[in-house]
Amino acid sequence: MLTGFIALYIFMLAAFTGYEIIGRVPSILHTPLMSGSNFVHGIVVVGALFALLNATSVLEQVIGFFGVLLGAGNAAGGYVVTERMLQMFKSSDKKKA
Amino acid sequence: MNPTLIIDASFLAAAFLFIYGLKRMSSPVTAASGIRVAGLGMLIAVLASFLYVFNVSEAALPHRTVNVILAAVALILGLGWAWTSGKKVEMTAMPQMVALYNGMGGGAAAAIGAVELFRTGEAHEVVPLVVTVIGSLIGAISLSGSLIAWAKLDGRINGTWRISGQQLLNGTFFVATLALGLYIALVAHGHAPVALTAAFFIGALIFGVLMTMPIGGADMPVVISLYNAFTGLAVGFEGFVLQNPALMIAGMVVGSAGTLLTLLMAKAMNRSVSNVIFSNFGATGDEEQGEIKGSMKPVDAGDAGINMRYSSKVIIAPGYGLAVAQAQHKLYEFVKLLQDQGVEVKFAIHPVAGRMPGHMNVLLAEAGVPYDIIYDMEDINGEFKEADVAIVIGANDTVNPAARTNKSSPIYGMPILNVDQAKQVYVVKRGQGKGYSGVENELFFADNTNMVYGDAQKVMVAMIQAVKSLDGGH
Question: Could you say which residues of chain B have pLDDT below 70?
Fold first, then answer.
């Protein structure tokens, strides 16, 4: 069981991690990185799956269904567009890889 | 093996892969592998979470089969739709697509909160309840706000929607919704009537709409980035409620990274985030413009192309208009011709070129332009003095010298590309219209500026032909 303080430690360290990762990014990557971080919070689909699998009423099932649907869209869509964008970044040193 | 152990280990692996993947995404050399690393983490986490089936609560046991089927159907539908839409979206439409996917994530976080809050049969503790309510509030705002942002960028909603006393209305609405949420958590202890909980969610959704409607299209990138951070926070909070560290870590990493990215974007536009959200940019645009001396001098595209062929240094300042005309491929073809003749060519990118910071880099990358001849504004602004030609294609406000000198201009103070310092400036432009901010551009009237009128793609074709015919059989 994650008590309040352990949760706060996790939040604090994760917040610093996010700040440090983005802080040094060149601005040419801002768009793919926004899209990439958008993909990462698609992990919410896992929480929605948990909620849906534990649903006990029709109302919970309906909401859980939409939760999983939306979360899956976030994760899959975020991945596809980020990968497409990053694929295109090439340096002039290398011939087409 | 114990399913809980597998689930926990998978989530730990996912959290590591997310952070490592994001780290790799922060350099252009390793970026493409970074998203695959993060994608692997997602795959592991989603597959492992199906093991929840073995650990469902006693009350949910009778519904297990139905729930599993529902979960599989929802996953396949969501994944299938997003995968196909993401594969075919145009690069120019990327900002609104990111907004749409982001809103979906916010909606999913709100849905997790809703399931918790509607489950009135169980006993709830106070702290998780408050966190659930706040996560739901943020997630729902992100959902409806992102949808409005998407609709605006996609041209489905035009213009801004403002009424007098709007900020008071929005403020009141927000406080009322928050109060309702806290009532559900603190007074009703999670046993509030369904109607009340529903009202809370509807209130949060409406607030997202109210908050986003007055914001103009030019500011939308900052707003999308803000909602990206919102969704991250909402996911982190709901992760705490579900006692899932992977959600907590991923959500909070994105929450803080997104916040920083929002601040960086706002700074690039020389505005504060609160200024973007609460002030009405562009509303004061047409007061006094002041007289601009000189006249616009048109020039033939072919002549401009030949002039560049005999220059030694050319700097290109592209804007969104280039991408709208789908001229980036022709532009790069022209650039390669110039390079073959020994001309030094560089691209100068304003931080807000395109519809999102870094968007122009993506559009140029799509055309095959290598990223090492593309320069950020700070790195290249000193070089315009030495350039024989600066060519502006489809950009306007980002090269307007009024931002440096004219205090009454709405774009005053925004850093700009110093194209006016080049010996010769060409501006490729469809017509004589104004920029996104509605401001007249002094640059077009300057003595060293010539206008090349026409569709950017046709202009590039004309330049290519002129240079090719000059060099005969090459």
Answer: 1, 121-123, 159-160, 217, 279-293, 432-438, 472-474
In angstroms, the separation between the Cα of residue A5 and the nearest Cα of chain B is 11
Write the single-letter amino acid at B249: I
The answer to whether ipTM exceeds 0.85 is: yes
pTM equals 0.85
CA distance B387 to B447: 16
Quick one: closest CA in A to B263, which residue? A23
Q: List the catalytic residue out of B154, B303, B340, B397.
A: B397
**What is the phi-psi region of residue B464: left when phi exceeds 0, alpha when psi lies from -120 to 50, beta otherwise?**
alpha
Q: Which helix (H) or strand (E) holds B391?
A: strand B389-393
Taking the Cβ of residue A14 and every Cβ of chain B, the question of whether any pair is shorter than 8 Å is answered with yes
Question: What amino acid occupies position A33?
Answer: L
- Mutation target to probe the A interface, by most A beta carbons within 10 A, among B12, B101, B102 is B101
Question: For B107-117, how does the pLDDT look when each residue is reduced to its tens digit (9 = 90+)?
Answer: 999 999 999 99
Domain boundaries, chain A: 1-27, 31-88
Q: Across the interface, which of A18, A54, A83 has its CB nearest the CB of B57?
A: A54
